[in-house]
Input
Amino acid sequence: MSAVDAGLYVKLAAIDRLVHGVSEQVVQVGAQVKYVEAQQNQARSELQQLRQEFLAFAAQARIVAALQRAETRVGVLQDQLDHDFGHHKVVRRTAVGMLQAFDLGLVSEDVVRTVGDELMLQTPRYWLAPALVALTAWSADDPALCERAVQEAFRRSPDRTSLFFALVLRRQARPAESARWLRHYLLAQDPRALGREFAVILESVAQGAFGPVGRTMLRDALDDWQELLGADSGAQDVQIERWGAELRGLCPTVTGAEFPFLHALSPQWPQLGRVLSAARGQQAVLDKYTAVMNTEPAPSQRLEDAVDDILDRLVSEYDDEELPLRRDLAYQQAVIAHDGDTARARTATDADSSSYDESLDYLTVQSSAALNPAAIGTSQATRRLAVAACRDWFHHAHQGFSRDYRTAVPQDVEIRFGAAYPLAAGGQFHLPPWQGSFLSPLAELQQGLADHWDRHTAPFIAGLGYKYAQPVAIAVIAVLAAMLVGGAGGGPVGALMAALLVGGGAWLIIRNLAGQCRRVQEAARGHLADARAESLRHLVATRAELSAWNQAYVDADAVEERVRELIASLSTATEGNSPFTGRTVTPGGDPE
Output
C-alpha cells in the first residue's frame, strides 16, 4: 500500500469513527429528549392530580371548619341567651306552678306573694312578672293591687297579657270573663301583622281550650281574616312559594357515584341529577306528611292540664329581643344538621326566616305552624290542623313542583368523548371531541365512535413514523462530501471507499432511528387500540346507566299521584278531637 493510500485510509477511518460517534450521540440525544418529554408529561399529570386533590382537600377543610365554627357558635349563642334572658325562665316556670298551687292549696298565700314580689324585682321589663303579681293579689282578694298589676302587665305587652288572662279565667271556670279578654285580644289584632303570641290561638283551636263560645268567636274571626287575606294574590303567592321551598328542601341529593358514566360523559348530567332528585322528593314529601297527619296526639283528659300546656307555650314564646339570637342559632344548627354545608343551611333557614320575625300575617302563622311548629311554639296537634288549613297552598306548590321537574327532563341525552391520552413513549394523543345522541340506536353510536377513533388515530400513528426525506438528503450530501475528500487524495478508489464508509454509517443511523420510530408506532397503536375499546365499553355502560336512570325516574315520579291523594285528603282533617271542647270546670276542678 502506498503512503497516499495509507494516509487516505487513516482519514477515512477517522471520518467513519466520527460518523459512528455522531450516530451514537444522536441516538442518546433522542433518548434523552423522549425521557425529558416523558418526565414532563408525568409531572404535568401529577400536578393536575395534586391540584384536584388540593381543591378537594380545601373544600373538605372549609366544610369541617364551618361545622366546627357552627358548633362553637351554638354554644356561645346558648350561653348568651341564658345570660341575657335566663331570668325569664324562672318567671315562666313559676307561672303555671302558681296556678297549680292554687288548685291544690298546698302553698300559702304569703309564700306565693313573696315569690311574685321577688320576680317583679328581678325582671323589671318582663310582662309576665306583673301578671303573676296580679294572680297573687287576686288569690289574696286584693282588687286594688290586682288592678294595678294587670294594668302594668298590659302596658308591657297588651297582647300576651290579654291571652294570658283569657286562658287563666277559662281554667278557673269563668267563661264569660275569659270570652271578654279573648274578644278584646281579637279586636286589637291586625291579621297582616300579628304578634308571635298568636300561635297560642292556633293551639287553643286545636285543643278546644276556650269552649263553645270561644270556639265560635275564634272561628268567625279566623274565617274573616282568611277571606280578607285570601283576596290578596300576592300574599297567597308568598305562601305558595314557601311551601314550594319546603318541597324543594326535601329532595334527596343524587350524586355522580350512583351513575358514574353519565356523570363523567353526558353534558346533561347536571340536569339529570336535579330531575331525579326532585322526583325522589315525592317519596320524602309523602313520608313526612303522612307521618304528620297520622300522628294522633293523645289529648289531655283534664282541661286544666290542656290549658296549662297552652299557658306554657304562651309564656315560653321568645321575646322580641331574643329573635336575632334565635335566628342566628337556627342557622348555626342548620349548618350542623347539613354537616357543614353552609349553602344548604342558608337555603333552609332563609326558607323559614319569617318564623323568626317580630310580627307575622295570619297566613304566615298558618304556614309556620305547619312547616316549623317549633319556631313559633305550637304542638303536633296544631301542626296537623295547620297543614290541613294550608292544603290549597300545598296543592298549588306541589303542582308547580311536579310540573317544573317534569318539564326539565331532557328530551335528548348526549354522550361526549374527547380527551388527551398519554403514550408510554412520551407525548399525548388528543382525541378531537365526538358527541352522539342516545336518540340514535346503540349500534349506530358504536360505529360512529369507532370511525371517529380510526379517522384520527390513523394519521396520528402514521405521523409517528420515521421521516426519511431530510436524513436521506443529509446522508447524500455527506457521501458526496466524502467522495470529494476521498477523490482528492486517492482518486476513484479513494472516492469509492469514502462513499462506502460514509454511506454505510448513514444507513446504520437511519435504520436505527427508523427502528425506534416503528417501535414507538407499535406501542402507540396498541395503547390507542385499548383506549378505543375502553371508550366503546364506556359508551355501552353509559347507555345502560341511562336506562337505569329512566326506570329510577319513572318509579320516583309514580309517587306523585299518592302525594296528590294525600293533599286532597287534608280537607277531612277537623279540629274536633278534644274531649273537652265544650267542657267547663267547677271551682273545685271537677268537670261539669
User: Anything to note?
Assistant: Strands lie at 194-195, 359-360, 414-417, 420-422, 428-430, 434-437. The chain has a mean pLDDT of 78. The chain has 21 helices and six strands.
